[in-house]
Amino acid sequence: MSDYSVINPYNDEVIKEITYTSRAETQQILKRVVKGQQIIANMTPYERSQVLMKLAELLERDKNKIAQQITLEMGKTLTDSLIEMDRAITTVKTSSYEALRIYGEVIPTDIASLRRDKKGIVEHFPVGVVLAITPFNFPINLSVHKIGPAIAAGNAVLFKPGPQNILSGQMLTNLCWEAGMSPDYFQIINPDIPVLSELVASPDIQCISFTGGVVAARAIAKNAGIKKLLFELGGNDPLIVMPDGDIDLAVKTAVNQRFWTAGQRCTASKKVFLHEKVYEEFKKKLVAASINLKIGDPTKGETIVGPVVNKKAADEVMRRIEQAVKAGAKVLLGNKREGNIIYPTILENVPASCDLVKEETFGPVIPLISFKDIEEVIEQVNSSSFGLQAGVFTQNLQTIKLLFKKLEVGALAVNDGPGFRAEHIPFGGVKNSGLGREGVAYAIREMSYLKTLIL
What we know:
Blueprint: E1 4-7, E2 14-18, H1 23-41, H2 45-61, H3 63-74, H4 78-98, E3 105-108, E4 119-126, E5 129-133, H5 141-153, E6 156-160, H6 166-179, E7 186-188, H7 193-201, E8 207-211, H8 214-224, E9 228-232, E10 238-241, H9 247-259, E11 271-275, H10 279-290, H11 311-326, E12 330-333, E13 337-338, E14 341-342, E15 345-348, H12 355-358, E16 365-371, H13 374-382, E17 386-387, E18 389-393, H14 397-406, E19 411-414, E20 430-431, E21 434-435, H15 440-446, E22 448-454
Parallel strand pairs: 5-6, 5-8, 6-7, 8-9, 10-11, 10-18, 11-16, 15-16, 18-19
Antiparallel strand pairs: 1-2, 3-4, 4-22, 9-21, 12-15, 13-14, 17-20
Helix pairs in contact: 2-4, 2-5, 2-6, 3-4, 3-6, 4-5, 5-15, 7-8, 9-10
């Protein structure tokens, strides 16, 4: 008997019936990787680098097949899924390179006031077993953002993909094994919440790298005990457009970073702050750029906006739109639903108390907010419980410096949107947006510990 069904969000057809990994099997797998961790710890950095480079080659080989599976599982357009695969290949290659750059340092002790003729040799060591818990929206790239650095650092990995993505997760796992990662130190699991909670609390897990929601992160933190926690959580990310900004580029960025992936990105441009001098121009151009976007079957190459991940998600997005409209918001475009597809929606005059702007909304909806003074924007952005990324379009260096200093976020993208991410730079937020940093080299440090030899 199955425990749940993987359902195609576009047509609600059952893709496959799935059974959870049992408590006994989960414990057996954990014991195996705990023992097997010494295998990868004893591999040279070069050997680990070669395995990762082989994985990148295999992902390139199978990227079309895996992209199709991603699209079937979570409704992302095929074009978007292929972009994700290209990014995943880059992430794994970067992990391969960084495996060769895990350097320590030598610190002379006689620089202190008390002269001691010694040197401290500091090196990075693997923490042990990393539990990688990944979300539905970028099932391959966000997974290799955890797996790649963990393997590069010499850790064993328990890979727990989102339930909706268990099939693409298994495809990735098979490629990891084919690349040379031993099942003794790399395994996939799919337990239910009670069994996963027990696993989180296990002292045999030394690091948990989790991407997902705040509620789940708090539950993990409560159960985890003393171990490394890396949380990449949500965001309520602002896109800010100043009078001297490139309006056409800002409009293109807003469309790309909010309507692609049906708005289901933690870094999507979820609130667009427009200076009053450019508000009307931006609004007209945004509606014009959005009105003819191809909507529908995500397997078709020309489709830009497909469904959100499931009916529950679609219901919640529509509830928030309806709440805003009832509170006085004006619909400029959209507010239409077909099955799990939410048509690109643009609103203005959304009250700040509405969930649409107060909380993270995972759907293709853009609320427009007019402002006169940049300090208003800073105050509104910082009043959020989230602080992931922000974007600003301006040519004014003073404005850039002010926002960089005062905005409570993990990154500020200039003349780009909050959705900017490169696989090798630090990524993560503050407040409810997370703990620690991804970005391959930075994740390697998070998944290591320092040991010092005094000579």
